Amino acid sequence: MGQSATVVAQERSSREIFGTPIFGPAAAQKGYGLNKMCFSFNEAANRAEFVHDEAAYCARFGLSDEQIQAILKRDLLKLLDCGGNAYYLAKFAGILGLNMQDIGALQTGVTVEQFKAKLLAARDS
Amino acid sequence: MARIVGGLATSHVPAIGGAMAKGLQKDPYWAPFFDGFPATHRWLDSVKPDAAVVIYNDHGLNFFLDKMPTFAVGAAPDYRNSDEGWGIPVLAPFKGDTRLSWHIIETLVDAEFDPVSCQEMLVDHAFSIPMELFFRDRAHGIPSVPVVVNTVQHPLPSLARCFKLGQAIGRAIESYPEDIKVVVIGTGGLSHQLEGERAGFINKDFDKACMDAMTGDIGKITRINPHDLVELAGSQGVEVMNWVAMRGALTGDVHELHRNYHLPISNTASGIMLLENRPRLAHAA
Question: Is residue B192 annotated as part of the catalytic site, yes or no?
Fold first, then answer.
């Protein structure tokens, strides 16, 4: 019984939810440096240093080339794919001056106005 | 002995802090949310709690992935807010209650919960904003105990586990030898998702079921496993774990006195609830 419960648990956690990355052990390891860099953005001096030379700042946290490119291109879906965690990436978004509707629009491939309309539409769902 | 007077819940979106700093409480975008608070203020003014236990999740201010506790309890004389990196104002420090904190920690460990104890802890918007929303000018004076639940990194504790954590906190408060009134607060939710191609996901039906379950059949919510919770509530909607823990701490007869539901604020369906915890009538002999 213990064994079948384990199998069920694995099946549950591997079942994909559309457009919804699960930040678990795999992402936590893959994205460790990336998230650590974003965590450093809690301090204004670090944010300034990042802005001064983004690639050099990324390298200091041991980001992979793929992660650095995704940072430079502001490719949020790629950053998630590279192990980025939403709460930490939000600090990166803060540096870019993007709010959550801007971020939502970027990730879902619509305009900010369309994204806001989608949020409003949930009232009538 | 200490008495649990009730439970409060509210969403804790960072943008609320920005709106408060700009005085936008009556702005048409924000008013439907802020108008949900006067009822809680009237209740707090009449009940006058002496301390608050606040169950919330840290968003990468105090905790990083190097050491990520599933449950942590503050045991500091005061708690500082700090720059969270997304441009909301830093609020004044909050007052702790180390004696109540350690009593809760000791009772939790006795109950086979093993939280991390924190004699220094920064508190982020998920603690600071609800404190200001509910307590206003008392926010920085009322003694508080922050309790942090991991909603950041899977595996997340199950809702059933969070409910039991709340029950253990409730027993801890009720066995506290001082004659004080305590309010328990859960923050976060309701449904929202910030990341991925499903960003902007909101689930009104789930939110209603969650609010109804606070005074109805809580099992309808606590039976949901963490993966299904992500699907139903959105990646960050899992923060209802904090609401469920708060509800667990209400050991008496629980009555809903007030609720407010509005969407969206930022990308979130916002919920506010006030639950009264009435002493259970003694069983007939």
Answer: yes
